[in-house]
Amino acid sequence: MSKSAPDTERELNDFYREADQRHLIPLWKVTARLLPAEPQTKVLPYLWKWPDLRRMANRAGDLVPIERGGERRVLGLINPGLGGKYAATHTLWAAVQIVKPGEIAPCHRHTAAAIRFIIEGDRSYTNVNGDKCMMSRGDLVLTPNWSWHDHGCESDQPMIWMDGLDLPLVGDLDAVFFEPYPTHAHPVAQINDSERKFSGPHLKPTWEKPEGRYPPLLNYKWEPTYQALKKIGEGAASPFDDVCFQYLNPHTGGPVLPTIGCYIQMIRPGIYTRAHRQVNSAVYHVFEGRGYSVINGTRFDWERGDFFVVPPWAWHEHANEGKEEAILFSIQDTPVMEVLGLYREQVYEENGGHQKVTGKFEG
Length: 363
Ligand SMILES: [Fe+2]
Ligand SMILES: [Fe+2]
Prior knowledge:
Oligomer: single chain
Shape: globular
Bound molecules: fe (ii) ion
Distance between the termini: 64 Å
Strand content: 25-35%
């Protein structure tokens, strides 16, 4: 005799209850959630305005000393979609940091790798494993995974820069290690050593041998970077990103860090790029100029100093309707996607390659 429907229903409910008690999940109940047709990210597109960031960084400078324990005077960008996770995207930390005249942020090292992109100030430095890298506006400075680093300001004005770290990713991998250096500052062995050796155009010293994945160049100076952007002139560039360069590790020809790709991009006056989307996430800093990006149909107006996030698999296009060039620096988790064989991108085909703008970001 076959069972009645209520009997089967009751047995199934008992089965699910037991599975739950025994810490088991029947996959058929959650297949759609675990295997969506495409990424269902919690990361939201978002924009942080520079006047607020700058004012609060300076306010922190007045209120909070840099000491061992707190380590750094840093304001992290928190993505509102990530439920309080300390992260700008699911994989990337981004922040503004301020060091005041005469200060030294104490030396330490951690397994999270970091980049700095200098927004304001000069005559400041990051000492990376004894190489004192002098920093000015527009420079990109690397502190690779587990390298000792302290930061000092020898100017009479504060320095403010963007920090970018893979900390959320390394945290999710439960691979965070941290160690303070025995003294406040690391001894200086050389000044601008990596830059002297490795910043020649298409040249690398023959006597320096690669040390694993450690990037040999730690300071990518602004002037040659800007010259590269300008050289394109009115020539053709990417229909999606206009003039966009990736910073490279001179030994490998690959990304500067295994987990973070760095890009510098110029949206020339009058350019309106076509939309595409990529599986990686990105944090942009507006280095110069103004313009807007349309991200998943919402228009984000940005100007010098602002930061914004493009989530994974989000349609995005950029526009510069002004007469001045707009320059964007960005960090992206692309190298992780590429090395794991997960990288994908897609071109927006409808409507001449442009999204319909359905709203404007108001903060
Ligand atoms: Fe650090
Ligand atoms: Fe893009």
